[in-house]
Amino acid sequence: MTYCALKGCPNSSHDTQEHQNITFHVFPTDPIIAGRWVEQIRLNHKEEYWQPNKYTNVCSIHFDESQTYTTNGGLCKLRQTAIPTKRLYIVCKEENQDSDPHEPDKVQDFICKEERLDIDDQYDPHVPDKLLDAWSREDDEKSYFRICTPSSQPQKIIKSGLSCNEANGDNVTLTSSEHQKTKKCMCNVVHTSKKLMPTDSDTEFECIFDSERNDKLRRKLEKKIKIHAKQSLQIKNLQQKVRRLIKKNSTLQNKLDKLTQGNEKKKVNKNKVKKENK
After folding, report:
1. Which of 38, 104, 227, 270 has an alpha carbon 20 to 30 Å from 218's alpha carbon atom?
2. pLDDT at position 233
3. What SS3 string covers 99-166?
4. Rounded Cα gap, residues 95 and 98, in angstroms
5. Domain boundaries in the chain?
6. C-alpha 184 chain-centroid distance
7. Computed over its alpha carbons, how large is the radius of gyration of the chain?
């Protein structure tokens, strides 16, 4: 039985017998659109590292009517840029505007059942993907730290927020405390470079590609196995046919030898009879 992957959705393949307008759809092959599907379901599940499998399906009630179409055969299919945006049952957080600014912000939880997220229905390739925002932010943090190379002259550091005197070109020499700050900045740069290394969440597209590659290899392997079984059966039949022909040939050869021996004996007997008559 097929179930919808979204939490709070009661639809399954058993329900389609009663409600024929509900259909189930697998994840798209486009890795970018599939990543957007994963984002929506992660928000629904409240799981940061949720990953789909080949049996994961989403029912049609989570898509707009503009994102679906019906074929000539009566099948309901999704468009290539379709993204689930309806009835996601996502838990949102809203700040209380009446709270005192000196007190910590009070957060109120509520469920957005019918509310759509701020995601365009159609995918625009010119708009940067949300999955890549973390990479761009880390690049900005890395560009903030620009450290001069050490030399025999007094060390200098350039920051984005210069004072008026520094903007006019005045040089600032580093004391021992400032020298320690530069070391901390260098450590921060190293840490930001380590953050740029891919994590588990960045491998979601690789998982999709791996699953597609594994499916192709599995299909090829099944095809090769079928061909091998067919050819081995043909070889077995031919070997059996050869054995039968060899056996038949040997029996015919024995019969031929017996006939030749009988003919020779008859000739010898005839010659003896002729000699006796003379």
Report:
1. 38
2. 92
3. CCCCCCCCEEEEEECCCCCCCCCCCCCCCCCHHHHHHHHHHHHHHHCEECCCCCCCCCEECCCCCHHH
4. 9
5. 15-112, 130-197, 204-277
6. 40
7. 41
